[in-house]
Design a protein that fits this description.
Distance between the termini of chain B: 24 Å
Strand content of chain B: under 5%
Strand content of chain A: 5-15%
Helix content of chain A: 40-55%
CATH class of chain B: Mainly Alpha
Shape of chain A: elongated
Order of helices and strands of chain A: HHEEHHEHEEHEEHHEHEEHHHHHHHEEH
Distance between the termini of chain A: 95 Å
Number of helices of chain B: 15
Radius of gyration of chain A: 31 Å
Oligomer: heterodimer
CATH topology of chain B: Amino acid/polyamine transporter I
Number of helices of chain A: 17
Strand order of the largest sheet of chain A: 1-2-4-5-3
Shape of chain B: globular
Largest sheet of chain A: 5 strands, antiparallel
Order of helices and strands of chain B: HHHHHHHHHHHHEEHHH
């Protein structure tokens, strides 16, 4: 019996790939014919009776012309003014009987249509793809060539401040769902001819446009190639969010740690590209992926770079501390109270013992229950509509914070630990999934073997982290393998004028990013003169 | 290649320190003090010098064949048959010495921290963790160590700094009360083989990114170990004085004595942290060397298949070889010490001489 199951599993793996969509009836290489009616018939065949497909026929210079478009995703004003009106009225420049060397289609394209992107094609499928990608298709009677006019026009969300990475100081714009808007936001930040944006189409059915962005000359070309290779390998019907892509291209699919980063903010993305990373835009989502993604990025925030370096460094270390807190605190509490109570100073020990008096659960139970309750409350708060969310948090605070302690269900120290853990968990949002697993892992180990278990867990997690790579770059770098130059921007954020080089581990080419090495306060001759004059004038107005 | 990873020379220095330091800081102060008393710190200097010399021998041997491990170049140095014997000896020896380390680890953990937990829990725990790291490869071991070792060293310095109010300079006097002999004796005992554990480099030199600088790497590693050993021994003498000899684990006692404003007290968990993560690295390095040596000896393409069997063997041997801790300590000085001397110093020296005489290898030139 087990053998047959095993065989079944194997056969499941060996199953042959089937072609994805059988619905498309036309074969791949179909060409347009000279007869307009049969061409239209082919389109009707391919699209069925979809209500949003519009076929508008008109006559231009005694030639029958058909416009095919999908209502709602093309720009109607432009369609009316620049296409229909042009074809009907402004055709005096078109030679109705073109001689050899020129065609009706070409002259219409060159002289009549005032759309930005016009593509000529004989392939039926190219035109069909264009039609579905917000193009207007123009077919002429008696011609084998059709035109695809790029005139997208649909409603998108306005650029707004993103919810995930809000800042006190720094640009507030965030990416939106439209790929082209997002790319334009990046272009506005980096006005270099070296910024390259390469298009890849992913998803057999959704045909989602995915764009690989990088700065040539800074990026490691091997990483770009690897990204493209992995993107091309994706074989799936639909891509609705960059998360799909992430899960197909990540290095460690079985790890709890993410090896692909994401951001919603153009400024952060620009900084990533300038360090030599590769970005992957996905149409339809504001989340842009960045690779390689290193562990240290999770304690870095864009504001570190905008605020002055002392506070930037301090907050970075605080984040690291919070990361340690949120993963270790419950485990430490369990290890101390269940195994090594003598590790605490005596007064604190007594306080804790008296607070725990009459609590039925052991420390491990307390911590696990509180953790579970907190996760449920948090999840409820995220999913519920905002007004209800507030109610949930009040109930949570009252029930868990007050009543549970008063009723003697859990001890006050456990609640403090739980609350601290919970608050700290919001400090490093990019590792939030990993944090939850780590916390549970460490807590259980501490519950079984005290400090010994905790330290063993520490070793295992560390080894695992050391074994990870993101697109060839070790996950723990620049701490391990140690790259001393890069440490300037790891646990601390050194002043900008000292960070002359780009991070070595990522952008190994063209490492120099800044010129000045001297601190900006060093007075040059002009400044000295200015200061002198200022002193002579008696300190300005004062 | 069995291992296609490369480690930087700095990572190798870190690995050497991690291989030697953890066991030695726990066990050495008492051992030295029994012989050399208040002059123990001189013994540490002597031992370090000895370690440097042996390190230079090992490096000299390795540098003649910079892209081979001892299992591979043994045949070149002393001929096919003898070379195979040498390779086997080292593969077995790395396993053998590791059983001592695992047992020491388990014994100390249970005696010092968790007296009610059976030994086997710690043996299995540490070997499992090390097996995972070894499976991930040398690079991962080295990278994990790059995080672990700084933590260990900082913690050691921190503990010594915290105990500094309790130090008494008078514990060091009189200097050389009994002459130089006790100092020499103090540096002979198990101390001698711990400081020559750079023998692991005979397996690792070919994987260095700059293997030609292996000599400097080994010596730097030994010097760092010596420095920290000196700090520990000096602290032990200064704080505990004559009590050092009678205590089993002076370093632990030092940590227990720390009391700053009655808030920072009983910092044993930190000692345990040093011990567990340091012990993990130590076991891991020897484990890795053993598995790699065995795989090369058997001409395997992959060493991963050997990780689990070796781990099982390691765990079982570490439990069944000795009845109790007394037997363990006795065998360390009576059996392990001579064997270690032969394997760490004698055999490399022989191989080096043979290679020189036969004119084999010349990577150093």
């Amino acid at each position: 019996m087990p053998r047959s199951i095993f065989r079944k599993l194997l056969s499941f793996r060996r199953k042959k790939k089937r072609p994805f969509s059988k619905g498309v009836s036309t074969d791949r290489a179909a060409k347009l014919s000279r007869d307009l009616e049969s061409n239209l018939e082919m389109i009707r065949d391919a699209l069925g009776k979809s209500m949003d497909v519009v076929i508008r026929e008109l006559v231009m210079c005694r030639t029958r012309v058909a416009l095919i478009y999908i209502d709602g995703i093309v720009d109607r004003t432009a369609l009316r003014e620049n296409v229909i009106r042009a074809l009907m009225v402004d055709t005096h420049t078109v030679d109705p009987l073109p001689g050899p060397g020129s065609s009706l289609v070409a002259s219409v394209k060159e002289k009549v249509l005032s759309a930005c992107g016009v593509q000529e094609s004989r392939e039926f499928n190219t035109l069909l793809d264009g039609l579905l990608g917000a193009n207007i298709i123009v077919l002429f009677d008696g011609e084998e060539t059709g035109l695809a006019l790029k005139l997208p026009g649909f409603e998108t969300r306005a650029i707004a401040e993103p919810h995930t990475e809000s800042v006190v100081r720094g640009p507030r714009e965030g990416f939106v769902e439209s790929l082209y808007t997002n790319i334009s936001m990046l272009r506005r930040k980096i006005k270099s001819p070296d910024l390259r944006l390469e298009q890849v189409q992913v998803g057999k059915v959704t045909k989602t446009v995915v764009c690989v962005a990088y700065i040539k000359g800074i990026v490691n070309p091997k990483i770009v190639d690897e990204v493209k290779k992995r993107l091309v390998r994706i074989d799936i019907d639909g891509v609705l969010e960059s998360g799909y892509i992430e899960q197909f291209i990540e290095d460690a699919p079985f790890s709890i740690f993410p090896t692909v980063g994401n951001t919603e903010k153009p400024d952060k993305l620009a900084a990533q590209l300038l360090e030599g990373r590769v970005a992957i835009f996905t149409d339809g989502t504001p989340f842009v992926l960045t690779v390689p993604y290193l562990f240290m990025e999770s304690i870095q925030a864009s504001e570190d770079y905008y605020s002055r370096y002392l506070s930037g460094s301090l907050f970075r270390m605080l984040r690291l501390l919070a990361l340690i807190f949120t993963t270790q605190l419950p485990a430490l509490y369990v290890a101390v109270s269940a195994f090594n109570p003598e590790a605490l100073p005596t007064p604190l020990l007594l306080t804790m013992a008296s607070a725990k008096e009459g609590v039925p659960l052991p420390a491990l139970g307390e911590v696990l229950v509180l953790g579970a309750i907190f996760e449920v409350l948090r999840e409820a708060g995220v999913r519920l509509p905002r007004p209800v969310g507030q109610a949930v948090s009040i109930v949570g605070a009252l029930v868990v914070g007050e009543a549970a302690v008063a009723a003697g269900m859990v001890g006050a120290p456990a609640v403090i630990v739980g609350a601290l853990t919970a608050i700290s968990s919001f400090v490093v949002p990019s590792q939030s999934d990993a944090q939850l697993f780590l916390r549970l892992f460490f807590t259980l180990l501490a519950g079984f073997a005290g400090f010994f278990g905790l330290f063993m867990g520490f070793i295992l997690v560390l080894t695992h982290l050391a074994s990870l790579r993101s697109f060839g770059v070790p996950y723990l770098s620049p701490a391990a393998p140690l790259s001393t130059g890069d440490l300037k921007d790891t646990f601390i954020r050194a002043p900008w004028w000292t960070m002359v080089r780009r991070p070595r581990v990522i952008g190994w080419k063209n490492p120099r990013r800044a010129g000045a090495v001297s601190p900006p306060g060093t007075p040059g001759d002009e400044e000295k003169e200015l200061a002198h004059r200022y002193d002579e004038e008696g300190g300005g107005s004062a | 290649m069995l291992e296609d990873g490369r480690i930087s020379n700095r990572q190798a220095v870190f690995l050497i320190v991690s291989t030697i330091l953890p066991t030695s800081i726990i066990y050495i102060p008492a051992i030295i003090y029994q012989e050399a008393a208040q002059d123990s710190w001189m013994s540490v200097l002597l031992v370090t010098a000895y370690g440097v010399i042996v390190g230079a021998i090992i490096a000299g041997l390795g540098l003649r064949f910079p892209d081979r491990t001892i299992v591979q170049y043994g045949e070149l140095a002393v001929g096919r048959l003898l070379g195979k014997v040498v390779g086997l000896l080292y593969a077995v020896y790395f396993l053998y010495i590791n059983t001592y380390i695992v047992r020491e680890f388990a014994e100390f953990t249970t005696t010092a921290f968790l007296p009610e937990t059976p030994l086997v829990v710690f043996s299995v725990g540490i070997v499992l963790a090390a097996a995972y790291a070894v499976r991930c490869g040398l690079e991962v071991l080295a990278r994990a160590n790059e995080i672990i070792l700084p933590v260990v060293l900082v913690l050691i310095l921190l503990l010594v700094a915290l105990i500094s109010p309790e130090m008494h300079i008078r514990n060091f006097t009189p200097v050389l009360e009994q002459g130089i002999l006790p100092v020499l004796q103090g540096s002979y005992r198990p101390v001698a083989f711990l400081f020559t554990e750079t023998i692991v480099m005979v397996m690792l030199i070919p994987y260095l990114s700059r293997s030609r600088q292996a000599r400097g790497t080994i010596i730097r590693g030994i010097l760092i170990v010596g420095l920290f050993q000196l700090i520990i021994v000096v602290a032990a003498i200064a704080v505990l004085g004559v009590r050092t000899a009678r205590l089993e684990f002076p370093f632990l006692t030092i940590a227990r004595q720390i009391s700053i404003a009655e808030v920072i007290e009983r910092v044993e968990p930190f000692v345990m942290l040093i011990w567990v993560v340091g012990g993990f690295m130590e076991v891991g390095v020897f484990y890795y060397c053993c598995v790699l040596a065995a795989a090369q000896w058997l001409n395997l393409k992959e060493y991963k298949a050997l990780v689990l069997p070796t781990g099982v063997l390691l765990t079982v041997l570490s439990i069944v070889l000795w009845e109790n801790v007394l037997e363990l300590t006795r065998q360390i000085s009576e059996i392990l010490l001579p064997i270690a001397m032969a394997m760490h110093v004698g055999l490399p020296l022989l191989l080096l001489t043979a290679a020189c005489l036969r004119g084999k290898g010349g990577g150093a030139r």
